[in-house]
UniProtKB/TrEMBL annotation:
Gene3D superfamilies: Carboxypeptidase-like, regulatory domain, TonB-dependent receptor, beta-barrel domain, TonB-dependent receptor, plug domain. This is SusC/RagA family TonB-linked outer membrane protein. Belongs to the TonB-dependent receptor family. It is found in: Cell outer membrane. SUPFAM superfamilies: Carboxypeptidase regulatory domain-like, Porins. It is a multi-pass membrane protein. Residues 225-352 form the TonB-dependent receptor plug domain. Keywords: Cell outer membrane, Membrane, Transmembrane, Transmembrane beta strand, Transport.
Amino acid sequence: MKFKDPNRSGHFAYINNSVLRIMKLILLIMTTFLLQVSASTFAQRITFNKKEASLKQLFLEVKKQTGYNIFWEEGKVNDRQLIDASFKNTPLEVVLDKVLTPQKLTYKLVNKTIVVKKKEPLFFDKVTSFFATVNVTGKVIDAETGNGIPKVTVKLKNSNRMVVANEQGTFMFYGLNDDDILIISAVGYLAQEMKAKDGMVVKLLAATKVLEDVIVSTGYQQLKQKTTTGSYSVITAKEIEETPSVNLMERLEGKVPGVKFDLRNNSIQIRGVSSYNGRPPLLVIDGFVALNQNLTNITSGTLDGNPKNSTQPETSGNAIISTFNPSDIESITFLKDAAATAIWGANAANGVIVVTTKRGKKGTSSINFSTTFSTSAPANFKNMTSMTNQQYIDFEQELFDKKFILNPASDWRQAPVSEAQQLMFDAKSGKITAAQKDAALNVLANRSNTDQLKEYLLQRAVSQQHNLSFSGGAENSSYYVSGNYTKDQPVFRKNSGESYSVLTNLTNDFLNKRLSLSTGLNYTYAKSTVNSAAIQALSVGRYGMAPYQMLVDDEGNRIGSYVTVKKNTADSLIRINKHLPWTYNPIDELNYNNTITERNSIRVNAAIKGKITNWLNLSVSGQLQKSLNDQVLIQNLDSYLGRELYNLGTVPVNGKLVSGFPKGGIYKSTRSNSNAYGLRAQLDIDKNWNDVHRFNMVVGTEISQNKGTGSGQTLYGYNEDVSSAVNVNTTSTGNYATIYGQGQGRFPFTNSSIFRNTTRNLSHYSSAGYSYLNKYFATASVRFDDINLLGVDRRDRATPLWSGGLRWDIKKESFMDKIEWINSLSIRATLGTAGNPPLTSANFSTIAGIGQLDGYTQLPFVYINSPANQDIGWETTKTTNFGIDAGLFNNRLSVGVDIYRKRSYDIIMSLPLNSTYGYSSLSYNAGDLEGHGVELNISGDAVRTKDWNWSSNFNLSYNTNKVTDSRFPNRLANGGVSAIITGLPVDNFFVYRWAGLDDKGQSQIYNASGKKISSKDQTYTVAPEDLVNKGRTTAPYFGGLGTTVSYKNLSLSVRATYYLGHIFLLQTINQQFYPVDNEFSPAQFSGLLANNTRLTNRWRKAGDEATTDIPGITGSSITSISRFMNSDLNVRDAGNIRLQQITLSYRVPGSLLKRTHFIKSIDCGLTVSNLGLLWVANKEGIDPEYQMTNAYNNLPPTKNYVFNLRLSL
């Protein structure tokens, strides 16, 4: 037997058995003496008060206070056993009895030495125990198949005793007590603890099929989702990797219940709208609010370029969520209800997106490389539903016959006409015969420019993304370092985008892991080039190309067209005024008209976390973010705009040529600089009382600031070779003379501008959770937000926001034990508030126009952009949420349902203001809105065998809203618009009631009483009741469906999305470049006219109104075209089901990789995306998301082929 002495600096004093025998003899002789002195011995008293103290700590304290040495039996006495000591001047004997007896320990006193031993049972106890033991037989089976599991280990808990089951899974365990617990475990299965019982059958669940304990990251803390009360959705790194794409948004669409993604502009909406202006969710990265909250692409053509955006050239988008490196993301958490979002307070009413980047794992190291390559062809011109060449020429002929187009020979200022129109004028003037005209028009009808457009303006889209990362860690440190490169070549030539990024996350532990330091750095450089020449050539407008208009001749020489002035006028001006060439060709513009945007952003964060006790931590963290954006628009003198402005402004004055517009190019630069910091101090409490009670809480305070500055400058007469320019005053009231007359010239951009803004926030917050028996849960949170936008009085600035929630884990109740097909079942309910600060107004005036010069005084001036508004305040949204989560049939089926209701108060809206104040309207907290919805998420495994697996997931979301206070009655007087009207959704859509065409081919509508109103009736005013509400423009029902079939290492995945219950308005015919009789000048008809094939059915003669609804040209007016466009005639059901992608992936077997000794895994895959519609509700088969609006870039994206490879070392 060995004894342990704690008083020798950690070294043990060992006493052999012979010495012990001598000691026993001495003890026997001295018994009488010891009895005599025992009274004085135990007169010693102890004072010791400490929670969760170890036995060793108590023994040392006893020695310190009494001077007694203490020995105990090594291996039989657990000196690390924790106790709660609360003794004050207590006799030593009482202390020892109270502490040691529950541990089944005893002690002896030898002089001033205390010997602690394990208590030996009496003979009677041994006999009783022998007869009380039982022999237990049992069998262990697979919970899925019912087959016995061989070689299972069955171990007696808190003992070294164990047995191993046979090949059939049968075992026998001898000599067990009635209250003994057995631990049953096997490789590949989840271990189970069960009370010993003869004839027991143990069902083990395969470890890979156990529902993962999903970790929810709120940005302030990480929680197990099974212990939360709020509504969350978590997308893990694994789920992100399963959907290969350069754009992160494409990896997320259709996967998150209640979250709507619009890939056309990268917008995200969580549970509908909470205000009238449709604010986006709050974006949080690694625990701090992101500096760039731009979740959607900027609509300016000089900035944008997302391939999915229907209004811009295709280059890399600038929406932050699409520029993330998908390989760097550990998880994306969507916070949806008040219990989830209230901790973020301001800006959280629209939901919160928490992005957590990857960190290294201790004890492992890896090198990972991934590459994604995608390509797609330009959209097919056959899908444009455009007129044929012959139909387009017939359209021009009708315009000519009805004198819509004036003879260019009648006035030198007349706009140029098309090649077909010139032939018509030549035939009319006698220059050519009618037969010659018809023959020439026939040549144009059979000439197509599509091949040239494809060759010179379009190209195959190619995107690539490469990522390399290093991660790992030792016992006290971890690291994750990655680099990423992305390049995008869209279908429009001379458009491109590329980016570089670096991410590092480091963690170090100190002082025996009681102190940790985490640091992170993320740097991104992005550059995009946008050129609009190709997209303008393929769109209706002055630069649009007629279907027979060619780019180059048969020898490959570029053909110049005339846009501003006709050819003979241009020739004269070049000869007399020394003008530069007036011709335009899109191929030239590809080189001379580019907008280049460069963005540098850096994010640095650090956190120090100290472990005060094993249940109390204190952390201090901070983040610094900087972003620098530079944008340069260069239109040199060779560009058409540069030549046109110079030519227009160059005229003879007193016999000399004078140019009011400097000769040279235009150099327009814009720079914006954003700096933000955030500092936070937080106390974390997580206390567990023997798994009966558990309490966790975070309490903290944080301060943040976001400061933005910017400037813009435009240089004219720019010479790129010598970097020179000419000073001009763009605000001069006189402007300059042009070929059309004095004072007609205008500068397209002002000289310079400056802006700056600062937003500061101070917040105090707390979030707490309590659980009882790990099945009853309660949570609460409160936050006070203070923002500088609301003046100097803190009573106006600060607002409290709160939440509370309950959760009940029903499956853990005893009455559920016999229901084996239910593996987990819980219900939850939450209530709370979140807010939105004002964005369009503040308690102080905001100014704009800094840096501009007054035209008269030539002094700098500013103007008040928004006046001070003392009545503006916070918007508040209260949300109620009920949810249920279940795992069924051995967790092969998982179901989650959420039902919620939102009420928004004090919504900011624009109200009329007395114009004598200098403003016609001002923003106030005046509106109310309510909404509700349902979310359903189902996932499961239909097949689960050794080699075959078939899993599927489906989610359904329903969301609607209703304005409860709009302050004013419905005053709509025009169709084709949405309006804020009490009792209706914010996206309701009103249109005219179509009544057909009149006998002149013009539009008619019905009023509320059913009377036909002619578009020529200028006395009738449309009333709100004359319009009809046709429904919502956003889908109330939406979701996604995904399924994966796997055989060994080969997998096939299919994903689809659907949107139902909304409408859209056909825009195939619109006012732009549609001929309106006697209202537009002939110059409006240069370039490409409205050319949709629907126009071929237009009214042409009396009686056609019985067979067509397309207004005629003769007598047409803006009113007639507008009422036709915005009537219920053009409303269509927008419901659709879309096949998003099909992926075939393969993982190289590990047995093959073992031979390399360094490759851990290789995964590769091929994906086809943008597969089109599976079903569409409208009869015409029109894609509601990409309907044709006379522009090539509105066509649906073509099939995209993606190859991806992942390698791990």
